[in-house]
Each structure stands twice: as structure tokens, then as C-alpha cells.
């Protein structure tokens, strides 16, 4: 299987829920399904380079165990037997956790993150670790875009997004502090969720005050099933109530009103992408959805102003919170970090506790402005990126506002807000995907799946 440009009419991601009836009826098995995934990986991995480590032996044993459970009529969950990739920021007891840096090459914690424990308990097949950027920030790894190897897959969940876009697996875990789930998912034609902040237990990722664990998938059904099954077993972050909702995604639910979120992204969106998004919005209006923008309500205007510098806000929050990790690494490995990471450390060193307190106040204010929008509309809609994936750039030094893996100007706001967001592959730009995201209020994740299901059915993908 070779790469091809993105055409939404012909692209077929790997999906799992539709294979389960074959397992139940004995026409197919999780082991045979896994072998199909491995065939695709063998064909495409030399170029896509989505994986750091594959545990084929362990995956085959887990798939065989799932096959036996289906034969006995005792499947553990709807994702029993599903091959899943794990972003290499999350621990796996049977594989190294290298965090995108040679400083941790071969590092074995011999522990599973809470999310990985939950997946194993649900019967999922942990196939391997997917490539991430350096320490999950911006300096890129080797992964290429599955639709054009000259372009980035995004970051920092680059391997997870590319593995879905290359139809290697039906689902993979990602993490997001600024834009690391939604942006690469949009670049790689994924359906993906960044849940409500704290909805999925982050395990050892608790050092960041706005880090989220989410799911990249080939379809909405698989995305939600994985999210739900993790949440039921691991719960949410300490002090958080976890994910609300049912085991299956909600039925299609047409929104009455949607707010078009501009954020920092609109001013930086390339004109052709803006026109393509306008064609998506026209379809929504033609279907009877009322669209509201910042000029339609002072509450929306206040919200847009509150999120107007989310990229810099994320840079400052992340920089301050990452400082102590970086200080320890610099002491151990004086020349081991990239120039980009060292620039983040320099910023963190320049910040005072009052600078951090001010950043927290700005985030609180933005969250209050967002909550005030709840009576106005059923959700928000925006692009997932300012354009298609840019060309690969492995040498530039990002500033924490600019990013070598693509600008997260439409993503930083939802990370600041802690709100759920689902990206859908609704635009094709010159053979590359561009995502459109729908955004809900906190703990409205399940309802957002119904809105996303309606969007998927009602909006014809726009091809430019």
C-alpha cells in the first residue's frame, strides 16, 4: 500500500466497530484483524515512520486472547481485540517510553499509564508506541504526513495521527497541552476528540495544568468507544468527576445555533482555506442552522477578546510548568536539548511567580467568558488549523507561539478553556486534509458526539 493524496470520496481509514459482528459470528477474528493492521504497517511505515516501537509478539498474544473470548461469548468490552497505538509520552510496562528525545532512549519504566491500564482491562491490543515530538513540545520527530511525505503530520501526537491517516490502526492515544491532538488529527484526516479537561486520567502527565488525553480514530464510533471505555476504568484526573455519557456515541442531533469561533486563527488563515470553510458554513446555513459571530452578541465579542492571546498564554503556562523538568535535564545532559527547548527554558527562567499567577487569572477569565456563551448556542464551530499541513521543517527554532509542526492558532483556545472538541475531516486542500472542529461546553462531550454525527452526515466534504 502506497501513499496517495487525500480524496474524501475514496479515503478509507481502518475501522473496528464494523468488524466486531464478524468476531461474534465467527467469520473473522481479532488475530486476523491485527494481521491486516500489521500488513499495512509493513507497507507504509518505511515512509510514514509513525512508530517508535512495535510489540508484535505481545500484540499477537493479546489478539489471540481476545479471539478466545469472542469464541466463548465473553468479550470484555466493545473494544476487546482493538489494536491501539500509544503516544510515546505515556508509559507502557512492556515497551520503552522515550518521550521523543534521545535522552530517554530505551528508558523502561515497567509501568503502564492509567489510560493504558484501562485499555488493557477493556481487552484492547496495545500494538506499539507512536512517535512524538521532543518531550511532547514542538521540535519534530521523523514522522511524515501520510498523504504527502514532504509535509508535517503535525505535533506533538504526530505518530498517532499519521498511523490513523495511513490506515495502520483504528485508534491511537494522543495528548494535548496546546494543539497536539486536534491539529495533527486535522492534518491526517482523523476523527479525534480532545475531551473535557480532566475527563481521562492522565497518570504521570499531571505536571501540566491543562494537559488532556484524547483519542485519534478512523471514525466517530471507534473514537468514542475508546474514550468511554478508558474513562470507565481509569476515571478522571484526581479531583475531577471524569467523562460523562453513555457507552455509545449519541444519535445524530442537528444544532439550532452554532457560534463561529474566530480566535487567533482567523486572521492567520490562508485565503483558500478560509473560502473552503465558508463553503462548509454555507452548508450549515442551508440546512437551517443559525450561525452567530462576534458581531452578533457582546458576549461573543467578550469571549473572542478573552481568548485573543491564547497562544502566548499557553506558552507561558507550559513554560513555567515545564521549567523544573528542563532544569533537571540540563543538569544531567548539558547539550542534549534542542534549541527550541532551550528557548522555552530561557522564557521560564525569566518568569516570576506573579507572571504565572497573572497567566492563571487570564485563563480563569477566558473560561468564565466561555461559560457565558452556553445559553446562546448548542456549540461552537471553527477550523482545526489555519491551512493544510505545512512542509516538514526539522531545523527551525519555534518560539512557543510559532510552531515548526504547524500553527495551533485554533487549538490553544480550547486547551485554555478545557472544553471538549471533536475534529472531523471535512476539507481537502490540494490533496491534503484540513479538519473542522466542533466545540462544546465542559462535560458536554457526549452531546458533542451527536452534533459531530450530524455534521458528518449533513456536510459534504469540500474539495479545493
Characterization of this structure:
Helix 2 (30-48) packs antiparallel against helix 3 and helix 10 (310-332) runs antiparallel to helix 12 (353-371). This protein has helices spanning 20-25, 30-48, 56-72, 114-121, 158-165, 182-187, 220-234, 271-286, 298-306, 310-332, 339-350, 353-371, 412-417, 445-458, and strands spanning 51-54, 83-87, 125-130, 171-176, 191-194, 212-217, 257-260, 290-292, 380-383, 421-429, 432-439, 462-463. It contains 14 helices and twelve strands. With 464 residues, the chain is of the alpha/beta class. Helix 8 links the parallel strand 7 and strand 8. Strands 1, 2, 3, 4, 5, 6, 7, 8, 9, 10, 11 and 12 form a twelve-stranded mixed beta sheet that branches.
Overall geometry:
globular
Strand content: 5-15%
Task: Estimate the mean pLDDT confidence.
Answer: 96
**How would you characterize the largest beta sheet?**
12 strands, mixed
Number of helices: 14
- Derived from helix and strand composition plus strand pairing, the structural class reads alpha/beta
Radius of gyration using CA atoms only: 21 Å
Order of helices and strands: HHEHEHEHEHEEHEHEHHHHEHEEHE
Total strands: 12
Low-pLDDT parts are none
Please give the share of residues in helix: 25-40%
* Terminal Cα span: 25 Å
Summed up, what is this model?
The protein is built from 14 helices and 12 strands. By secondary structure, the chain is of the alpha/beta class.
Question: How are the SSEs placed, and which strands pair?
Answer:
Elements (H helix, E strand, L loop, with lengths): L19 H6 L4 H19 L2 E4 L1 H17 L10 E5 L26 H8 L3 E6 L27 H8 L5 E6 L5 H6 L3 E4 L17 E6 L2 H15 L22 E4 L10 H16 L3 E3 L5 H9 L3 H23 L6 H12 L2 H19 L8 E4 L28 H6 L3 E9 L2 E8 L5 H14 L3 E2 L1
Helix pairs in contact: 2-3, 4-7, 9-12, 10-11, 10-12
